[in-house]
Specification:
Immunoglobulin-like; globular; disordered N terminus; 425 residues; mainly beta; DUF4861 domain-containing protein; five-stranded antiparallel β-sheet; nine-stranded antiparallel β-sheet
Length: 425
């Protein structure tokens, strides 16, 4: 009798555990009549705990499941206080699809190893002794990038589509690495070999010069552009690096514009599976009426720039045979329509060959030249924009500006209409 009782209790526990571990508790709905590959999804800690309660230990973290399959996900500590703030995950939806998922707490050490599809890299060192990746660093005041102390001269980030970098010196312009692989390559690029030549993984595809490059920032004040560079303090902080998204901060103090000392902060987020990164920018002490300019280099551009509207965004873009591989490269800036102010072109300047004495003399100019830019409002909250880049060598369809523009407009629709997450009753 006792043995039978113990058996009944054990079976009850198994049934109870099975039900609690597999029961769906959230519903996700794609309200658009289009498929959505690698749709980004975010839930705050409060939202997660409102569905499954608080974890019994700080070592227990939430993981998303479709039936018994773990969905690529991660938790991110956005304010660096030691506790996770958001659960981020990806899923590909069919048009109008509704899917039930479950969120379960899992011991941190037991979380499945998802494929790494995003990356951030700041390597410190030199080519002789090697570079060590760091999560935090300051660029020395007035540093011009020589002698080389940072791998690829930059803070770099990537996903399985494209790679980007931001010069970690007074130039502070953004650049592009075109990719021919979905593998993460930035831990090696710049540590050996020549990234200006076409490699199996891709190459540096962009001539930046004295422009803002691929999404570089400036202050637009009284019809003049003031590069976000040569600041007293230039600080990099890694926020999160994971399988579905990576986030980092660039902080600036002592940004001297006319008679004002400004501060700025840029938070960059890149998700797996997309040709864009998201930038949230705060500027402190800017003159009233000034705005944030986001630029695209026009050094080799012969075809006209484009400015298009969607219901929620304004998109400025270029596409031409303007890559260092002598093929087509497309770049675009997408700004919420409510924040968009204007677009313009910085003065043109002579393009000097890479490695020439003239190039060396002009690469550190503060003046912004050869740049198509869009401006957006500055306010107490961060100003958000998205930067896109595509390369013909990666996909032949990117030789067509209409294809590139259609993709950006499609992304604008998806961002404007996020997947709806609701708690199942």
């Amino acid at each position: 009798m006792v043995r039978l009782y113990k058996y009944a209790v054990w079976m009850f526990v198994l049934v109870l555990f099975g039900c609690s571990s597999s029961k769906t508790n959230i519903k996700l709905e794609n309200k658009l009549d289009v498929d959505r590959e690698d749709a980004p999804l975010v839930m705050t800690r409060a939202e997660v705990e409102g569905i499954i309660g608080k974890a019994s230990s700080s070592e227990m973290i939430p993981v998303v499941y479709l039936k018994e399959e773990a969905i690529p996900s991660q938790v991110d500590d956005l304010d660096k206080d030691g506790a996770w703030d958001e659960l981020a995950f990806l899923y590909s939806f069919k048009a109008k699809e509704v899917v039930d998922f479950s969120i379960r707490y899992v011991e941190r050490s037991q979380v499945p190893a998802f494929k790494q599809r995003t990356n951030v890299r700041l390597g410190v060192g030199n080519k002789k002794d090697g570079f060590k990746g760091v999560d935090h660093a300051f660029s020395p005041k007035g540093f011009k990038g020589k002698p080389l102390r940072y791998q690829s001269e930059s803070v770099a980030w990537e996903n399985d589509k494209m790679a980007f970098r931001n010069y970690f010196d007074i130039r502070n312009a953004k650049d592009l690495f075109g990719k021919l692989t979905d593998k993460m390559i930035l831990d090696e690029v710049g540590a050996k070999g020549n990234y200006h030549h076409l490699n199996d993984w891709g190459m540096d595809v962009l001539h930046v010069g004295a422009s803002l490059g691929s999404g570089g920032l400036a202050l637009c004040q009284n019809d003049s552009l003031y590069r976000l560079g040569s600041t007293d303090v230039f600080e990099f902080t890694l926020v999160s690096k994971g399988p579905v998204r990576s986030i980092f901060d660039l902080d600036y103090k002592g940004w001297h514009v006319e008679n004002r000392d400004l501060e700025a902060k840029e938070r960059v987020t890149i998700w797996a599976g997309h040709y864009w990164f998201k930038s949230d920018v705060e500027v402190v002490n800017a003159e009233e009426g000034s705005s944030l300019a986001v630029g695209i280099v026009t050094s080799y551009l012969k075809k006209p720039t484009r400015l298009e509207n969607t219901s929620s965004f304004v998109i400025g873009s270029t596409l031409d045979k303007q890559s260092e591989n002598k093929d087509c490269l497309g770049m675009g800036v997408m700004i919420p329509k409510i924040d968009f102010i204007t677009s313009g072109n910085a003065p043109t300047a002579k393009v000097y060959p890479l490695g020439s004495p003239e190039f060396a003399k002009n690469r550190y100019r503060k003046a912004v030249t050869e740049t198509f830019y869009l401006t957006q409002k500055l306010s107490a909250k961060p100003s958000t924009h998205y930067f896109f880049a595509v390369w013909e060598e990666e996909n032949a369809k990117w030789a067509n500006h209409d294809e590139f523009e259609a993709m950006m407009k499609s992304e604008a629709s998806r961002i404007s209409n996020p997947i709806v997450i609701t708690k199942k009753q």
